């Protein structure tokens, strides 16, 4: 919580009140010690002694507001300037802040550019160091590589609790036919619609359109044959949804092995 720059850092009272209190304390101490006592307030004998000795007394002036410590000066943090760069702050902290604020994976190049770095090597090293720190303190998340980028994700063992909070996305409601078609496209891409239908044994035009609406499948090109039919493949969003860094991370399946 930020301190009000107009309050005393010790007790939160305004400086004017603090000054008045300080003056009261000084006056009280002076009265007890007999130092700040004026001749009018002295007993007659003390006043006579003071006159004979030529002693003069005065009450020390109360400290003014400018004499008191300024909370803003004690807790001030240098303001960010236009030439602010990641070198002025720990790289790990800046990188962590960027990843926390993004809801999509960020590539190493994008992170390096944002941090003002010339290469991705410091970024990758900082990510390794952060994951080590997370593991040591048993954090519930890690920085994972997904869809060609990096993203902070919760660990699988907490999925049940996260699902209680988050609503299910539409992707999670794919029909068995859509999931089967998506699997064929993922493993055999780029693939023609006719080839998908040959494998499934049924028409797949409507299912492919549904997968494209969910941004899981896209048209990646056209085949070099009569009619130039469209070729289908998976999207980057497909990798994000299924938690894959790339297509090479697809589970191995004997059913999709190319014949020797």
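Q: What amino acid sequence fits the structure above?
A:
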């Amino acid at each position: 919580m930020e301190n009000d720059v107009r309050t005393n850092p010790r007790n939160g009272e305004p400086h004017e009140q603090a000054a008045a209190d300080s003056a009261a304390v000084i006056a009280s101490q002076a009265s007890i010690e007999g130092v700040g006592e004026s001749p009018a307030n002295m007993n007659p004998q003390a006043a006579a002694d003071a006159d004979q000795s030529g002693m003069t007394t005065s009450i020390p002036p109360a400290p003014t507001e400018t004499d008191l410590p300024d909370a803003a000066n004690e807790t001030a943090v240098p303001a960010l300037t236009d030439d602010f760069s990641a070198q002025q702050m720990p790289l790990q902290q800046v990188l962590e802040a960027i990843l926390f604020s993004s809801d999509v994976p960020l590539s190493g190049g994008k992170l390096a550019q944002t941090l003002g770095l010339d290469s991705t090597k410091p970024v990758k090293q900082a990510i390794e160091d952060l994951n080590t720190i997370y593991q040591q303190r048993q954090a519930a998340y890690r920085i994972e590589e997904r869809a060609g980028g990096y993203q902070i994700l919760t660990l699988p063992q907490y999925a049940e609790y996260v699902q209680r909070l988050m609503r299910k996305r539409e992707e999670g409601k794919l029909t068995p036919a859509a999931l089967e078609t998506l699997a064929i496209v993922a493993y055999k891409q780029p693939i023609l619609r006719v080839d998908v239908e040959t494998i499934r044994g049924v028409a797949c035009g409507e299912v492919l359109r549904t997968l494209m609406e969910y941004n899981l499948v896209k048209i990646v090109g056209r085949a070099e044959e009569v009619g130039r039919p469209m070729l289908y493949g998976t999207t980057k969003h497909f990798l994000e949804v299924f938690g894959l860094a790339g297509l090479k991370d697809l589970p191995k399946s004997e059913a999709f092995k190319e014949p020797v």
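Q: And what stands out in the fold?
A: DSSP finds eleven helices and five strands in the chain.
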